[in-house]
Amino acid sequence: MPAMRKCRTCLTYTFSESCPKCGNPTGTPHPARFSPHDPYGKYRRALLALDAPAPEKTPGPTSE
After folding, report:
1. Is the CB of residue 26 less than 8 Å from the CB of residue 9?
2. What pLDDT score was predicted for residue 54?
3. CA–CA separation, 18 vs 16, rounded Å?
4. For the chain, which has fewer Cβ within 10 Å, the N-terminal or C-terminal residue?
5. What local confidence, expressed as pLDDT, does residue 34 receive?
6. Cα separation of 15 and 1, whole Å?
7. Mean pLDDT by 10 residues, the chain (64 residues)
8. How far apart are alpha carbons 16 and 27 in whole angstroms?
9. Are strands 13-14 and 26-27 parallel, antiparallel or unpaired?
10. pTM
11. Measured between alpha carbons, how far is 61 from 57 in angstroms, rounded to an integer?
């Protein structure tokens, strides 16, 4: 039996490789398996840190 798939654009569940509604490619709706011994975890976290917006700097207290 084929695995359930999900369109990331219109969020439709299907068994086919492409969405029957919009025609976009589908992917697995399940998250990746977690392993505490993940050899590539530090690279994934570094990529997420590059995509994250920079924290806004708030002005600190001033002494006058």
Report:
1. no
2. 62
3. 5
4. C
5. 80
6. 9
7. 88 92 91 84 86 68 64
8. 10
9. unpaired
10. 0.50
11. 13
